[in-house]
Fold these 3 entries.
Entry 1:
Amino acid sequence: MKPYIEVEKDRIDSHKYLNKNTVHRSSLIVPRFDRIKTSITFLNHFLIKRNYKDVVMKITAVDKLGLYLDDLSMDINEPKVYNIQLDEIFDNVKIKNYLIDFYTSKNLFIPYPAVMVNHSGQNFFSVVHAFNRVLNDVFEDDKVNTINAPEAAIDVYSDDTYETFVNFATGQQEINDKLKFEYTNSKENIEKNININLPRFSHKSFLVSDIFEKKLNGGILKILQPKQKMFYGRMFGGVMNNKTKSFTANHSYYCSNHSKEYYETDLCYRTYPYFENFNNELIIYPIMSPGEISFKIKIINDNEVFYSSEKLLISPSGKEIKFDIDDIIKKNGLKNVSAFTLIGNTKDNKLPTRVNHQIIYGNLDRKNKIRGSVNTSLINKKMFTPSGKNKIIWGQVICDNNFVSRLGFVFMDPDGLEDQIKIDIYNEKGFVKNFKLDLYPNKSIQLSSDQIKNKKDQNYDEKSNFYWYLAKSSRQDLTAFSFHYNKISGDGSGEHSF
C-alpha cells in the first residue's frame, strides 16, 4: 500500500510537471477460469482523450506453471471500443493467465490502463476494472510496496445458496508462504493461516466457509498477502452461487487499521445516483485508520433537505454499518429522489485519508447476493483538486437484450453549481451519439441500455453489447456508476467510472 499523502503528492506533481515521473508502460493481468468466458474491453481513451496514436497492446498467454504459451500484439489507433475476446483469440485450455501491456512513447501518466475485465457464463456477467499488474521498475516497487497492508472490503455471504470467494494471484516469482485470514464480527474473532505454494503468474481461489470451517454472514474479512517483489496485487473476490456457479466479483481494498494517516478536517461526503425500483445499499467496514466516524444519509426531497439518523463506526472493530437507502426513502415518504449523499463526521478534526465503503446496486430481489458491490471512497475539502481543466470520465455499460442495465451520473460534492455535461457514446464501430444534459447537485442523470443502444443510431451494431461512455464537465467532481443484471437469473454486477 502506498501512503495516501504520497498518492496526493504524485497527483499534484503530475499536474504541475507534465514530464516528471513519466509512465510509458501500463499493464494488467487477467485470470482465466475453467468454463468461463474471458474478455477485456476498453475505450481508446489514449486517442480520444490525449490524441496518442502510437499505442501498442501486447497480450501474452501463460499456463498454470507461468510458462509462455502464445502472444499477440495490436496497434490501438482507432476512436472506438476495443472488444478483445481472449479465449477465442488464443483457444487454448492450458491458459491460466493473460498478461496485457500497453506501450507508447508518450506519457500515460497512470500505470494502470482503463480496462474492464469481464467474466461471463450462463445468465451472468461479472465486471471489474484492472486490479493486478507487474510493476514498471524497482523505484515504483519502493513506492507501491512500502506498506504491506491486509486486503479487505469483501462482502461475506455464506449459506446453502451463496458463498464468498477470494482469488489470490502471484507475480513474476513463485510463492511458498502463507495467506493470513482474519474474520471479525461483534461476537468473535477468528484467525487462520493457509499455506500457499504457487508458481509464478498463477492464481488460486478460496471459499470463506472452507477457510473458517463454518458458515459466516456479515462481519469483516481481512486477508494479509505475502509481499511480492515487482508486483502489485489486489484480491479478486466476490459472491458465487453454489448451484449455478455464476458469480460477481470486484477487487479488494486496503485495510488501513495500522496506518495513522489523517487530514486535518472533520467532514467527508460523496453523492451517489439513486436508482428507483432497484436495490440501493451502502456497507461501511471499519477498515480505516483508527478513530470514530459518525455517518448519515442526506436526501433532497422536493427541495426539502432530509437527514437520516446517524450511525457510529468505530475503526477498528468487529461491527460494520449499513444503510438501506430504499428503506429510508420508503419509510420517510420521500419523493422524486434521484441521488443521495453519504456524510461522515469526526469530533477530533482527524479524518482518515481513506474513508472507503461499498455501494451496492442490483435488482429488487434482496435474496439474490450476486449484484454490483463496488468499493469507493469519500472526498473532503482538503483533497487536491486540479483547477482550470475540464473533468473527463469514461466507463463501460453492458447493452445486451438479456440484461437490464443502468448508468447514472452525479457530482460527488452536494454543493456547488449545476453544469451541462456532454456524454459521448461509443461501440466497436466507433462514435455512436452524444447527449447534452444539465446536471444539478443532489440529483443524477440516468440512462438505460435502451437509450444508449438504439437502432436509429449511427454505427448501430446488434452484435455489439459493450458500449462505453465518455463524459465531460467543467466541475472536477463528476463521476458515474453503472450496473446490470440478467433478466432470467437476476445475477448482476457493476462498476464506477474511470
Entry 2:
Amino acid sequence: MRANTLIMIVLASVFGVLAVVLANVWLANQRSAMARTEDVNRDTLVVAAVPLKFGDSLSADKLREIPWPAGAVPAGAFKTTKDLLAGDGAKQALQAIGVNEPVLATKITGPGQRATLSAVLAEGMKAVSIRVNDVLGVAGFVFPGDRVDVLLTRTAHNDGGPEKSYVDVLLQSVKVLAVDQVADESKDSPTVVKAVTVEVSTKDAQKLTLAADAGQLSLALRQAAASKAESTERITLSDLTGDTPEDVAKRQAEAQKQAAADAAAAADRQRADAKIDGLAKAVERVGSQVDELSKTKPVVVVQPPPPAEPVKYVQPEPPARATIGVFRGVKLETYDVPRQR
C-alpha cells in the first residue's frame, strides 16, 4: 500500500470521528434548549383561523386560540375568543388579517360599530380627500395603506414681472386610507380613481384644503418601508432647462410682446372691418335712395326761347396791298404794291 493512500485513510477516519462528536454535541444542546422552553410559562393568544378582509364580521368559527409565551403577548391582543367577542353587537375587521396573525384591538371595531374610515383614524388625525386622475394618482397604483408624498404645482403672478411656475413637496409620508370609496387594504389590482382619501393632522388638513384651490395636487408613491422625512427643495423651470431666471424672464417678455402685437393687429383688423361695414351700409342707403327716386314720375319743364339779337352789318376793311398788272409789249407783268389810302 502506498504511503499517500494510507495518509488519506487516516485523515478520513479522523474527520469522520470529529463529525460524529460535533453532531452529538449539537443534539445535546438542542435537547437542553427544548427542555428550557418547556419550563417557560405559557398563555393563549387569539389569532385568525381564516383570512379576514376589511369589513368582515368576527365570529368564533373565524378565530382560534394558540399557545403563546406569557411574557411576549402583544399589546392589544386577546387571550380568549370569548374576551374578543364580548359586548353587544358584532365586531368587524378594519384591515386585512392573515391566517394565524394575532387579532389586535387596533385592527377591529368595537361592539356594534361599523367598519368605516372614522374607526380607522388614529387619535387626533383627520381624513381628507384629494381629487386626482390617471396621472396624478400614480396610474391607479396607490392602494389603501400605502404611504405617499403630496406635491403642489402652481404658478405665481408677479406685478409687472414674468410668471413663475414651481413645484413644492407639501406633505411627506402620508397614509392612504381609501381610494375612491374603497378602504380595503387587501385590494391589489390597479384601478384609475378620481379621489384619494389620506390621514393627516388638523394643520395638514388645512394645508391640503388651501392647496387644492392654490394649484394642482399630485401624489408620489413612497417605498413601503420608507417613512422617514426627506430634505426637499423647490423645483422651478430653470431647474428643468438649465436657464437662469433672466433667460426665463426674457422669453416670457418676448411672448408677452408678441401677444401684444397680435392683439394690436387684431384690433386694426377689427377697425378696418368696421369701416368696410360702414361704407357698405352707406352704399346700401344711397342705392335705396336711387331706387326711390327712380319710382317717382319725372316733371317736364318748358323754358321760353332766348330773345333774338339784332343783326349788325360790319364793313370789311380793304386789303393793305394791291396787285397791279402792266403790259410791256405783249408781255404782262404784275407788281405787289401798297394800297394808297
Entry 3:
Amino acid sequence: MKFKSKILTHQEPIITIETADLFNPASTFLEEKINIQNGKREEITSKNLISDGIVILDTQMRFSTPQTIESEITGESIVMNFICCNNVEAIIDHVESEKFTTENTHNILYASNFNASFEIPAFEDINYLSIVLSLDYYQELINENWNLHPNFSATISQKKSSYLAPKSVPFNPAIQWIIHEIKSCKYKGAIQKMYLDAKIKELLILQLEALLEKSQKKNITIQDEDYHKLLEAKSILEANFTNAPTLPELSRMVSLNEFKLKKGFKSCFDTTIKGYVTQLRMEYAKTLFQNKESNVGEVAYKCGYKDVSHFSAAFKFFYGFTPISFRKINLGAKLYFLYWDFLEVLSVDVLSLDVCMI
C-alpha cells in the first residue's frame, strides 16, 4: 500500500507512506511523527504507526485560511474512519458519500486506488483517526466471512470503492474508549504489536455491529434538522456528564421537545439519555482508576456522584465487579505487561551480546 496526502498550496506532500500489502504478524510498528507550524497560519500534527498491512494515522490540523487537501491510496484497502470534526467537505472519486463531515461519527470504506480531496474551512479544529488495512489483513480479521456484509462484499469483489453504510453513525462509549486506548498506547515493539492488533480487531467488531445494525434496523423517521439536534444533545452530555442537564434543560438547550428528544435519542444511539450519562461516567471512572491512584471516594466525586455507595452500585452493575476489585485487576494487568516489557528488553540485550561474541 502507498499513502500520500498533500496540501494543494504546498509543493511537497505532508504524509508519504509505503508498506507491504500482505499482513505480517511478526512485523512491528514504525512510528513517524509530523509537526508543521507556520506561525498562526497553519498547524499540522500527525502521529503515524506503520506495519506490514496496517497504517494508523492520527492527525490534527488547523488553518487560518480555507485549504484543500488531496489524498490517495494506491492499491486496495479497507479504511476504518473515525471523524472528530465538523464541516469538512469530502469529494471521493467514484464514491457516493455525505457532503460534509459530522463530529464524532465513523464508517468503513473500501478503496480501490483511492483519490479524494477535502475542503478544510478556516479556524476549524480538524481531527481524524484513520486505520488503513490491506485487504489481506481485513480478510483475516473477519475470518474470510464475506457473508457478514453481502452488499459491501459485492462491491469489494467488483473493486468498486464504497462505504459499508450510506451514512456515518455516531460513536458509542465503547468505540470512544478503544480510540482512547489506541491513541494513548505506551507499549513498544512486539508488545505494542500484540496490543494494537487486539484493539483494531475489537474496534472493527464494534464498528461492524453499529454499522450493520443501523443499515438493517427500521427506525422511526427522523428529520435531518432533528438528527443534528440529537447529535448536539449527545455532545452536550459528553461535555457535561459529571453534572448532566435534566431532560427539560437539555430539551431547551437543543430546541427539541422532550418526546422527540427521548424517542429520537434511543433510536439513534441505542440507549436512553440516562443510560448514556451512566456509560460516560463509568468509562471516566475506568480511566481515573487506570491512570491515577485515586481512591473510590475521589473517583465517585469526580464522576458526579455525591454518594459513594450509589457510585459503587452503578460501577458493579455496569462492569460486573466492584471498584475495589477493578483496581486490583488493573494493577495485576500493569505488572503483567511490565514483566513482558522486561523480557523483551532482556532478549534484545542477550541477542546483542551474542552478536558481539560472534
